[in-house]
């Protein structure tokens, strides 16, 4: 336990005032934590913290790393259970959670969450509840997904606490309730932002109950006035919003911003992309405006009360113009010199219409403040201006139009002053963007003094638009940064003033203002805020000594004005306070005032008359009415401090502000050393419970502050991300510009190239023309030459035709020549012929002459013969007649003969025909006969085939038989061999010799028989076929029978004797016979395989021979047989029966056939 | 001419209208009236038409040459045949190859063996594959023919015809089967080839035994009509038709052994249809035999 002691020591040293020791100790703790994984150290630390509230311990605890988280949570959970330690534990938890430890996701599983919820549900201590709710609200965005299982617990808590706010069951001080209300309000925002559907359905179900209706009316409904409709209500569903995918993309700060988006409350809201579609610029202007106050208020809360006031002073200007929303923009616009259109766009809002009352005749004190803004708005001259003018003109008596001018100037100068500041940031942010820098530098160096704000602004707008116009959030961010800077400057200014002289800036400005307002305007933009704030201050200060006290209170009011409703009411309230001092005490402005009254100070009414002067009458009336109502309520229910339209946050702010004011004032006034003294001063002894209350209040405020800080951190995170986007965008812009330059260069190059191209083209055209000319010339030459050539060609053709003609002529002439020659030849021939004829004719003439002479001679002879003939004519007639008759008879005879001949011919011809017909008949007959013969042949062949097949079958049968027989023989021999082997050999040999001698006689006789039988034994083998042929075999069969019988008997005997005979055979002639038998068998097999029918007979003969020889031997052996006939009998008889049977079959078969 | 005039004049139209075989019996009777039967014409008739069962045995006997074409010699030749049968029968009894209790089919086998000279030395000798074929055919024939002698002769001559006349063509049949199966159903052939079942189909049963034992006798007769009349290609078509008919089942089977087993034991219910389709298929592929009736 040395270690424990060690730890105790360390713990005691933890809060050592020496810085070095502190660091050492812290380092030692961290080392320990790294080394040690046990819960002990953590537990000790928690204990220590709870005991001493040590900041160091808190620091260590809130930076705990992973393995210790469980111990820490367990420990916290332990302490959470105890009522006494609950509050510090909760604040510790809050500290730890706000650090956003890496193990924050484990929170949802930790039992701590359950006990926290339980505590929130059951606890009755407001402080604990408020702290717990804030812790819960902080925790919710860290566990959006896993927290959904406790959704109804959250809702239940909300329901309980909202009811609490109204009913106050614990009857605690209202101050607490304000805190509680504020935290419930935050819870409402968180829940509505994160789970709208579920939450709305919860609200619906929870507040539909009658007992809850009042709570709804009083507490929840006003809250709902500060939120817009969540888009998820339209697009999402209960399940969808619990979908893990929805939350996966969102980091904690995203969730926070999401929730802020749907808020209409300026203290809560954050306007980012998508929510404002009207005009971006408007948005931005508005945002400056809204973020500015929030930022400043933030800072304000962060720093002491005293410091907070100056920051919020800018807002004062806005508050100074209640109901004139367009003018709300003026400080912003002066600073940023936004376009007038924005204002015009903004002005028509219904809220403005409602809130802007008609002119108030006498608004003297506020004149100064309005003079700053009203002319401005008037200068823009729109509906806003229209509204503004009635107010402004009477108010701004000293600088009617010129003020506006001045104001513009001021804005310009201020703008001139601001840009450098704005751009300082970008400078540092983007050192790479030299172009931008150049612009900025030039702006800085040249334009700052001379250039108009519009220029710089437009530059800025361009710059901003170019960089991040698409994302108004970025712009917003920038503006944010600017505003922060401004505020920083103001704080600096503030800080320069000693803390004691808290009011001094105002006074100072007041003084300067009283000198000349314009001068204040011409001050730097940051200062302008001061100047503007100071204006009202001066006005306020003048009326009463309480002015200083009054101003601070007003400083926080600006929070209201961004949103119309709240913006109006505080003004009204203020007016109410001013207008009706009597009623004022419970005044809407409310709790603070009331409280202060409650605290025992009766000062409030002091400043109220100021409002009377400062506010228009109608507004005053309106507010008065309101306050009356509120008063009633306040009277009715103690806690009716919340206006239906004021957000609880405002109320809280106001409360703080008032508290701060009171504090500072008292401090200033009384310069009392202690608060207790302060309290005593207020009247009555300081009750201990009040101190307690104040402490608690302080604690609550601290919690609230921490919560707000947490929110700021989230915003900062987001801002960083957006800045990165801006940087990227500008880089791209640069890149684009560079590309454009390159493009230009290239375009130039292209132009140069085009020029040269044109030149080249011109040259080319020239060449082309020259070339064309030459070509044309050449063409004409060619044409001429061609023409010439054609002429020549024609000439030559003409000549050729002539030549042709000549040739033709020559040919013709030749032909003619030939013809002539022919003619000549012909004529020569003719000539020769003629000459021949001539000679012939000459000879013919000579012959003619000779013949003529002969003719003459013959004529004379003829004459002579004629004379002779005439003498002999009479004798010849008779002779001729006789001849005639003879001839006639001969003719008749011949005719008869012819007749006979023809008759004979006819007869013979008939005969021939007859014979021929007979012949054909015969032929036909022959054919038929042939056919028939063929038919018969076929028939016979068919039959023959059948017979043949039968014959073949028979052959097969015999073969089979033979095979069988041989088989049997073989078997017989084998068996006999085996049996007779042991018989006497010599005896057998002698007996064989004797028997051979005496058997010779027998054999002679036998041989004859056997011969005869052989002749017949052949037929039986073929009998199968022969017997079928006809009955002829019957003749054969008769002699066969005795033979068969004989044969069979002999068979029998031989078979019977064989066993005995085999012995001598084996001795004497067995080898030969055996070999012979084997040969036979072989032959048979061969025959069978070859189916040679011819050899069949031979083999059978041989077989029979063989049998015969055996039979020859048999008788000789017969005598010897007796010794052993008995033992053979059964087998042999059987076989013999078979044999006999075969023989019988032959007969039977015979009969069959 | 006289025959023609006697025939129904409508006979020409029957075939056109689709009635086949109305006049077949009559024309067969006319054919059978001729003395000296024209074997060619009988062959053509048998190939063209299914034989009427009352004339089937007669026609088969004539076609197988058991009885000659002349009517006169029928009785005589049959007598010879009978005698031959009994001779052989007796011989076999003598050498105790058969006895009274021997089944008829075995008797036929022994007789056939004896006649062809292939009788084994002993009864106990194992059967040759060709003997198995003979037995199968004889069994089928026994169902169709009553008279044992006629039956024996038909079987014997049928087997002889197969062994002599169709021996060469029978060996070609598996190839032809593949060819026609390719034409008819390529997919089935592919499947069979894929299973390697093509070589393992029951060719012995189909082509050597001519479906004896595979088809019931009523269907078998019609196939054998064609085979006896000289066309053994019909066997291929019957096989093709069997494959086509049982295509789905065959495709469902994957192994060659299963297919073979299935084909060896095909269901016997619609074999008539198979044979009819096979005959049609055979007609379409091989053409109608010349109408010479």
UniProtKB/TrEMBL annotation, chain A:
One of its GO terms (biological process) is regulation of cell cycle. Residues 729-823, 898-925 form a coiled coil. GO terms for cellular component: TSC1-TSC2 complex. It holds the Pfam family Hamartin. Transmembrane segments: none annotated. The keyword Zinc does not apply. The keyword Acyltransferase does not apply. Residues 507-537, 1040-1052, 1126-1138 have a biased composition (Polar residues). Residues 290-310, 347-407, 487-591, 989-1052, 1103-1153 are annotated as: Disordered. Keywords: Coiled coil. Residues 300-310, 355-377, 1017-1039 have a biased composition (Low complexity). Residues 487-497, 543-552, 989-1011, 1105-1117, 1144-1153 have a biased composition (Basic and acidic residues). This is TSC complex subunit 1. The lineage of its organism: Eukaryota, Metazoa, Chordata, Craniata, Vertebrata.
Automatic annotation (TrEMBL), chain B:
Keywords: Cytoplasm, Cytoplasmic vesicle, GTPase activation, Lysosome, Membrane. InterPro entries: Rab-GAP-TBC_dom, Rab-GAP_TBC_sf, TBC1D7, TBC1D7_dom2. One of its GO terms (biological process) is negative regulation of TOR signaling. GO terms for cellular component: cytoplasmic vesicle; cytosol; lysosomal membrane. It is found in: Cytoplasm, Cytosol; Cytoplasmic vesicle; Lysosome membrane. The keyword Lyase does not apply. It holds the Pfam family RabGAP-TBC. One of its GO terms (molecular function) is GTPase activator activity. PANTHER family: TBC1 DOMAIN FAMILY MEMBER 7. Non-catalytic component of the TSC-TBC complex, a multiprotein complex that acts as a negative regulator of the canonical mTORC1 complex, an evolutionarily conserved central nutrient sensor that stimulates anabolic reactions and macromolecule biosynthesis to promote cellular biomass generation and growth. The TSC-TBC complex acts as a GTPase-activating protein (GAP) for the small GTPase RHEB, a direct activator of the protein kinase activity of mTORC1. This is TBC1 domain family member 7. It comes from Cyanoderma ruficeps (rufous-capped babbler). The lineage of its organism: Eukaryota, Metazoa, Chordata, Craniata, Vertebrata.
């Amino acid at each position: 336990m040395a270690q424990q002691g060690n730890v105790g020591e360390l713990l005691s040293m933890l809060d050592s005032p020496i810085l070095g020791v502190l660091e050492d100790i812290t380092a030692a703790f961290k080392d320990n934590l790294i080394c040690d994984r046990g819960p002990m150290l953590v537990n000790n630390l928690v204990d220590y913290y709870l005991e001493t509230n040590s900041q160091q311990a808190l620091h260590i605890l809130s930076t705990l790393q992973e393995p210790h988280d469980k111990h820490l949570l367990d420990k916290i959970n332990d302490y959470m259970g105890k009522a006494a330690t609950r509050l510090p534990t909760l604040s510790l938890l809050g500290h730890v959670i706000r650090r956003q430890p890496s193990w924050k996701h484990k929170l949802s599983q930790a039992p701590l969450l359950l006990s926290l919820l339980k505590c929130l549900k059951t606890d009755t201590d407001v402080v604990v509840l408020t702290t717990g709710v804030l812790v819960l609200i902080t925790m919710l965005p860290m566990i959006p997904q896993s927290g959904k299982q406790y959704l109804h617990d959250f809702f239940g808590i909300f329901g309980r606490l909202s009811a609490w706010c109204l009913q106050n069951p614990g009857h605690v001080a209202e101050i607490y309730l304000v805190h509680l209300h504020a935290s419930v309000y935050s819870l409402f925002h968180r829940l509505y932002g994160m789970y709208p559907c579920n939450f709305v359905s919860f609200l619906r179900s929870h507040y539909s109950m009658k007992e809850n209706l009042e709570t709804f009316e009083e507490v929840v409904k006003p809250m709902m006035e500060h939120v817009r409709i969540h888009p998820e209500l339209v697009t999402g569903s209960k399940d969808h919003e619990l979908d893990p995918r929805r939350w996966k993309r969102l980091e904690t700060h995203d969730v926070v911003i999401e929730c802020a988006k749907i808020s209409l409350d300026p203290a809560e809201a954050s306007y980012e992309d998508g929510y404002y579609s009207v005009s971006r610029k408007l948005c931005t202007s508005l945002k400056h405006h809204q973020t500015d106050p929030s930022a400043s208020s933030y800072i304000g809360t962060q720093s002491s009360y005293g410091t907070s006031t100056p920051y919020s002073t800018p807002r004062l200007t806005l508050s100074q113009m209640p109901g004139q929303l367009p003018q709300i923009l003026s400080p912003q616009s002066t600073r940023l010199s936004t376009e007038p259109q924005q204002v015009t766009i903004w002005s028509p809002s219904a809220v403005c219409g409602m809130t802007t009352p008609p002119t108030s005749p006498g608004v003297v004190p506020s004149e100064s403040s309005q003079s700053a803004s009203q002319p401005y708005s008037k200068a823009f001259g729109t509906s806003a201006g229209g509204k503004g003018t009635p107010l402004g003109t009477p108010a701004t008596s000293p600088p009617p139009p010129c003020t506006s001018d001045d104001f513009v100037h001021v804005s310009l100068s201020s703008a001139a002053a601001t840009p450098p500041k704005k751009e300082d940031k970008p400078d540092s942010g983007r050192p790479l963007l030299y172009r931008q820098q150049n612009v900025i530098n030039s702006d800085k160096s040249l334009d700052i003094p001379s250039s108009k704000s519009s220029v710089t602004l437009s530059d800025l707008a361009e710059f901003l638009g170019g960089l991040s116009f698409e994302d108004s959030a970025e712009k917003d961010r920038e503006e944010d940064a600017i505003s922060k800077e401004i505020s920083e400057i103001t704080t600096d200014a503030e800080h320069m003033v000693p803390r004691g002289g808290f009011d001094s800036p105002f006074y100072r400005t007041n003084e300067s203002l009283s000198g000349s307002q314009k001068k204040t305007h011409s001050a730097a933009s940051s200062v302008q805020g001061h100047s503007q704030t100071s204006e009202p201050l001066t006005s306020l200060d003048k009326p009463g000594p309480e002015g200083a006290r009054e101003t601070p209170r007003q400083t926080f009011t600006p929070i209201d004005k961004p949103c119309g409703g709240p913006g109006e009411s505080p003004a009204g309230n203020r007016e109410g306070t001013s207008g009706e001092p009597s009623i004022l005490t419970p005044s809407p402005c409310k709790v603070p005032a009331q409280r202060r009254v409650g605290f025992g100070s009766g000062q409030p009414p002091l400043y109220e008359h100021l409002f009377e002067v400062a506010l228009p009458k109608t507004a005053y009336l309106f507010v008065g009415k309101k306050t009356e109502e509120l008063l009633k309520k306040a009277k009715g229910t103690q806690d009716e401090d919340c206006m239906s339209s004021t957000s609880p946050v405002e109320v809280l702010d106001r409360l703080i502000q008032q508290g701060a004011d009171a504090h500072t004032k008292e401090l200033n006034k009384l310069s009392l050393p202690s608060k207790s003294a302060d309290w005593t001063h207020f009247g009555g002894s300081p009750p201990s419970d009040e101190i307690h209350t104040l402490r608690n209040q302080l604690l609550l405020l601290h919690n609230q502050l921490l919560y707000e800080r947490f929110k700021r951190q989230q915003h900062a995170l987001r801002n960083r991300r957006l800045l990165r986007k801006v940087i990227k965008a500008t880089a791209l812009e640069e890149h684009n510009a560079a590309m454009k330059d390159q493009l230009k260069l290239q375009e130039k190059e292209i132009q140069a190239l085009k020029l040269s191209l044109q030149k080249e083209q011109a040259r080319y055209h020239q060449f082309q023309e020259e070339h064309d000319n030459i070509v044309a010339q050449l063409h004409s030459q060619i044409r001429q030459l061609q023409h010439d050539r054609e002429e020549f060609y024609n000439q030559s053709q003409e000549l050729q035709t002539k030549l042709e003609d000549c040739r033709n002529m020559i040919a013709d002439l030749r032909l003619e020549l030939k013809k002539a020659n022919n003619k000549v030849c012909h004529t020569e021939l003719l000539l020769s012929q003629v000459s021949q004829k001539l000679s012939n004719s000459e000879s013919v003439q000579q012959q003619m002459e000779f013949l003529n002479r002969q003719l003459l001679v013959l004529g004379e002879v003829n004459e002579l013969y004629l004379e002779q003939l005439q003498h002999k004519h009479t004798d010849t007639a008779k002779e001729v007649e006789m001849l005639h008759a003879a001839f006639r008879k001969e003719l008749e005879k011949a005719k008869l003969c012819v007749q006979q001949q023809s008759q004979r011919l006819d007869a013979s011809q008939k005969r021939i025909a007859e014979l021929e017909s007979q012949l054909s008949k015969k032929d036909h007959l022959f054919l038929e006969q042939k056919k028939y013969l063929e038919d018969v042949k076929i028939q016979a062949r068919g039959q023959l085939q059948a017979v043949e097949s039968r014959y073949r079958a028979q052959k097969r049968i015999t073969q089979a038989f033979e095979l069988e027989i041989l088989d049997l023989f073989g078997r017989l021999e084998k068996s006999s061999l085996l049996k007779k082997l042991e018989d006497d050999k010599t005896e057998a040999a002698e007996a064989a010799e004797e028997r051979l001698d005496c058997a010779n006689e027998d054999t002679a006789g036998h041989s004859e028989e056997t011969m005869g039988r052989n002749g017949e034994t052949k037929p039986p083998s073929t009998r199968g076929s022969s017997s079928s042929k006809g009955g002829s075999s019957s003749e054969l069969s008769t002699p066969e029978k005795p033979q068969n019988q004989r044969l069979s008997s002999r068979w029998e005997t031989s078979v019977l004797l064989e066993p005995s005979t085999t012995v001598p055979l084996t001795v004497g002639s067995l080898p030969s016979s055996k070999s012979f038998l084997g040969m036979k068998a072989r032959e048979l097999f061969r025959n069978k395989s070859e189916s040679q029918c011819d050899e069949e007979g031979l083999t059978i003969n041989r077989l029979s021979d063989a049998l015969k020889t055996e039979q020859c031997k048999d008788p000789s052996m017969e005598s010897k047989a007796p010794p052993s006939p008995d033992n053979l009998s059964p087998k042999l008889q059987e076989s013999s029966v078979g044999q006999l049977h075969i023989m019988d079959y032959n007969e039977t078969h015979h009969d069959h056939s | 001419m006289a025959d023609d005039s006697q025939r129904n004049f409508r006979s020409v139209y029957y075939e056109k209208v689709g009635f086949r075989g109305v006049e077949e019996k009559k024309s067969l009777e006319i054919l059978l009236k001729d003395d000296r039967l024209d074997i060619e014409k009988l062959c053509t008739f048998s190939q063209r038409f299914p034989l009427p069962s009352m004339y089937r045995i007669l026609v088969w006997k004539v076609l197988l040459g058991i009885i000659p074409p002349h009517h006169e010699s029928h009785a005589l030749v049959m007598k010879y045949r009978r005698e031959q049968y009994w001779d052989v029968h007796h011989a076999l009894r003598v050498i105790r190859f058969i006895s009274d209790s021997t089944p008829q089919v075995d008797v036929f086998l022994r007789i056939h063996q004896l006649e062809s000279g292939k009788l084994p030395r002993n009864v106990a000798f194992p059967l040759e594959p060709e003997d198995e074929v003979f037995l199968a055919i004889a069994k089928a024939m026994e169902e169709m023919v009553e008279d044992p002698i006629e039956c024996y002769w038909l079987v014997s001559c049928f087997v002889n015809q197969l062994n002599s006349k169709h021996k060469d063509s029978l060996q070609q049949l598996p190839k032809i089967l593949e060819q026609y199966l390719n034409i008819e159903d390529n997919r089935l052939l592919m499947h069979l080839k894929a299973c390697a079942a093509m070589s393992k189909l029951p060719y012995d049963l189909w082509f050597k035994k001519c479906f004896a034992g595979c088809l019931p006798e009523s269907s078998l007769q019609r196939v054998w009509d064609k085979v006896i009349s000289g066309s053994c290609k019909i066997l291929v078509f019957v096989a093709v038709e069997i494959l086509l008919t049982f295509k789905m089942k065959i495709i469902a089977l994957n192994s060659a052994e299963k297919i073979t087993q299935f084909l060896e034991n095909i269901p016997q219910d619609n074999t008539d249809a198979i044979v009819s389709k096979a005959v049609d298929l055979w007609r379409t592929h091989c053409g109608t035999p010349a109408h010479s009736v």
